[in-house]
Amino acid sequence: MSALGEFLDGVFARLRLRSLRMFWHVGFWGLALVIGIASGVAAVLFGMGIAWIQTWAYGTPDVNRLHSFAENLDWYWIVLIPTIGGVATGLIFHYLTDDGRVRSVADVIEGAALHDGRVEGKEGLASAAASLITLSTGGSTGREGPAVHIAAMISSKVCEWVNARGITARDLLGCATGAAVAASFNAPIAGALFALEVILRHFALHAFAPIVIAFVAGAVVHQMAFGDQVEFNLPLAPDLQFYVELPAFMGLGLVSGVVVVILMRSIFLADTVASGIQYHLILPRWLRSAVAGVLLGLIATQFPVIIGVGYETTFVALSGNLILSQAILFCMIKVVAVSITMGGRMGGGVFSPSLMVGALLGLSYGIIATSIVPSMSGSVSLYALAGMAAVAAAVLGAPISTTLIVFEMTGDWQTGLAVLVTVSLATALSSRYVDRSFFLTQLEGRNIHVAIGPQGYLLELVRMDATMRPIDEATQADWDLVEKGHYVSAAGTLNTAMTVFERTRAAYLPVVKVGGETTPSQIVGRLYEVDALRAYNKALSDAAEEEHS
Question: In the structure, what pLDDT confidence band is assigned to residue 19 with cuts at 50, 70 and 90?
Fold first, then answer.
């Protein structure tokens, strides 16, 4: 073949390769668009379902003024409605899940890190149904966690249909969750960053384009359903005395960090106490949510502000229309109510409650701060806005996307410096006392080490049968090691193996297939430390390549 012929063959080969790559990208982006639309529709329908059931349960046509309407109800209705909701959610979890646990954002993060972008189906549907009932009958949680998990279920099903694995599956998961956030809050920019910052936990370039396509689709779905409206319209134009007031916002950031730690530990403490009571009294699982519903109803008879997601109270706080004692008391009561709801495992998320707690905290702080030097202070609504962003960002472990969500939900882009200062300090302080965020602390409590990065969980992804060297017949030396306890199970992962290697200093470990009552255990292979280290190094390399591609 002539040199010209070889050159032309090379050109055509490169053109064919580029055409195939372009075709794949177009197809993948089309799939991202479909997932974005489906996730956006699911999030919008979930919100509409909450409004419909809430209207039926409480008899009010305006769910955004739910607690004002509930103030006029007879006390027994205020107690009865969340009690019935608690019984219903308890029965759902009792019969449709093995552990009675709510699936939410933490499970989506786990799916992205450990399960090839997949989340549980049946348990997820049960959690969505339970959260729908909880949020409609007075449960004091938020709607974003269920919406994100519903979107993740959509992505998981699509990944099964197209047999998507690895990076592709995780990117599609990011597309779904970003679209759900965008559709839930009409926050398209923040939706994309939420998927990257919270779910995928990296900002790889390859994930950006499909996620942008998906979250735009989610935002369009929201605007088609509700119009282009923001969640909170601030009635006052914040007036920030920049250089003079910035130290006050730094102080608000530190106070917010402390409150975030109190909020998160209260939720986990409530769950621990409720589990202990349930275990020692041998109570049925469904009764746990019912008791939580009764407690919420009793509190709501005196403080109806705890009912539902709390957007009405959040708006009042952002408007500065509460006195100091009310703001402090409502903030404390909301923390108690959220802890009872989540400790009772009634369903829902933590984002909306953190907005309300943060707005009340910021207003309380702002009233005190502006009263000290009133001539050099701006509006208390700005402190409420900054507090709302700070608490939500620290709870989610997402300072960038949460800041943008707050901006997009309020429509106010003029207060960036004050909000960013407050958010950064709150996040930095709270992360020292929890595992970075509420979701990662949840996972850490289940012994899933996602918070410290890939090095903390990648060993769990490498199965023993993929790393060991199979053998036909074990030697006496192999059995001697087994007798000493220097072996690993064939059903295990490298995480256990590396612990045994560190303890025994052995060059290799027998891999044992554990027998049953009638079948003896047998040695099926040997795991050499050098092979284990090589597999771990490859897993780290693949993770780094994904995060920087």
Answer: very low
Please state, as a whole number, how many other Cβ atoms lie within 10 Å of the Cβ of residue 49.
Answer: 17
pTM for the model stands at: 0.86
* Torsion angle defined by CA atoms of residues 300, 303, 308 and 314, in that order, rounded to the nearest 10 degrees: 180
Structure tokens of 416? 């960036």
In this predicted structure, the answer to whether residue 377 has a pLDDT above a threshold of 80 is no
Q: Three-state DSSP class for 447?
A: coil
pLDDT of 522? 87
What gap in Å lies between CA 180 and CA 168, rounded to an integer? 19
CB atoms within 10 A of CB 518: 5
Q: What angle do CA 360, 102, 311 make, to 5 degrees?
A: 25
Cβ contact 303:330 at 8 Å? yes
For the chain, the distance separating the N- and C-terminal CA atoms, rounded to the nearest angstrom, is: 38
> Rg of the Cα trace of the chain?
26
Amino acid identity, residue 333? I
Q: Look at residues 208, 327, 213 and name the one whose alpha carbon lies nearest to residue 259.
A: 327
Q: Under a CB-based contact definition with an 8 Å cutoff, are residues 539 and 461 in contact?
A: yes
pLDDT of residue 24: 44
H-only helix segments in 453-528: 476-483, 494-504
Q: Is the pLDDT of residue 193 over 90?
A: no
Q: Which structure tokens are listed for 307?
A: 């009912």
* Three-state secondary structure call for residue 323: coil
**Where does residue 166 fall: left (phi above 0), alpha (psi -120 to 50 degrees), or beta otherwise?**
left
DSSP state at residue 63 = G
**Proportion of the chain in helix, strand, coil states, percent, rounded to 5:** 75, 5, 25
Distance CA 416, CA 320 (A): 19
Question: Residue range 502-515: average pLDDT?
Answer: 86
Non-local CB neighbours of 425 within 8 Å, separated by 6+ positions: 250, 253, 254, 256, 257, 390
**349-380 burial, b for 16+ CB within 10 Å, e for fewer?**
bbbbbbbbbbbbbbbbbbbebbeeeeeebbbb
What's the CA gap between 456 and 63, in Å, rounded? 44
Q: For strand 508-513 and strand 522-528, is the pairing parallel, antiparallel, or unpaired? A: antiparallel
Question: Which segments of 117-171 are extended strands (E)?
Answer: none
